Amino acid sequence: MIKDLRVLFMGTPDFAVSSCKALYENTTLVGVVTQPDRPKGRGGKMAAPEVKIFAESVGLPVYQPLSLRDGAFQSTLELLQPELIVVAAYGRILPEYILNFPRHGCINVHGSLLPKYRGAAPIQRAVMNGDKQTGVTIMKMAQGMDTGDMILQRSMDILETDTSGSIFDRMAGLGAEALIEAIHRIVGGTAVYTPQCEEEATYAPMIEKSEGVLDFSKPAAYLRGIIMGMSPSPGAFVEIGDQRLKIYEALFGGDTNAPAGSITKISKEGIEIACGDGKALLLKILQKQGKNRTDAYSYACGTKLSVGDFLK
Q: Which of 3, 22, 207, 209 has its CB surrounded by the most CB atoms within 10 Å?
């Protein structure tokens, strides 16, 4: 029923690839719009977005406009004639002329159960705040920031061992499945467009690197949220002299009377650190600046850490 539907996809990172692939397999995907190639890594070598890499691998036309303002993309829309535009983590606000072009409108794959966590970092914020559940919303796009009517939602649990990275991976597949179901409803005329409750809306602003600074005088639950929510990128960290030690995974440890920030236990399970509320965190995966990631026990052995020490 949707195989002949002309769809234009707009997305950029890994999260968007699953949705792009699902559209390629189930609709007539007329093109892919993604962000321009950007410098990446220490060497600053130009790197293509993950969506572009997938699109080119299957022979789809790729567009990387520097701007969408002032009708800059109008001629491309007229060339492609999409009946539906699908957006997933594209990274730019769509102007009105794009929202109004396709006859079925524009829909978005958003990584939260709207109206909770509107904005750029819904998955990270959910993990950082210690939420037990999140999900994906397929919504019709409007001029506001994630304010459009909801078409379909699917929920998923946040496990104790989940980082933002693991949630991204699972949600990408869930979002792709929900997207195809929503398109079937739209084309079949059975889609129900449910307005969001503004009183329940919360926001998920873009993550700043400075939010990753770890102060072990803070409660363990707060610190664990920062560590797991900012993993794998940009990463939570402690300053050790002029070096940064990134911490990518941590679980809750036991109760302790030790000074905040001191090591209470070292085992093959990891390094336990005392926090300001009398609880400990079990650090699992670390990375010293300029080095590869390692398990915390190996780091403790290599740095000759002992119980009572502070990280070094």
A: 22
Taking the whole predicted model, whether its pTM rises above 0.70 is answered as: yes
For residue 129, the SS3 value is coil
Contact 236, 226 (CB under 8 A): yes
**Yes or no: is domain 6-200 CATH 3.40.50.1110?**
no
Tell me, letter by letter, the H, E, C secondary structure of 274-297: ECCCCEEEEEEEEEECCCCCEEHH
Q: pLDDT (tens digit, 9 = 90+) per residue, 175-205?
A: 999 999 999 999 999 999 999 999 999 999 9
Identify whether 95 is preceded by a cis peptide bond (ω within 30 of 0). no
Place of tokens 């600074």: 213
Which of these CATH numbers, 3.90.45.10, 3.40.630.30, 3.30.1450.10, 3.10.25.10, describes 209-303?
3.10.25.10
The angle that helices 14-26 and 50-57 make with each other, rounded to 10 degrees, is 30
The domain ranges of the chain are 6-200, 209-303
Neighbours of 172 (CB within 10 A): 22
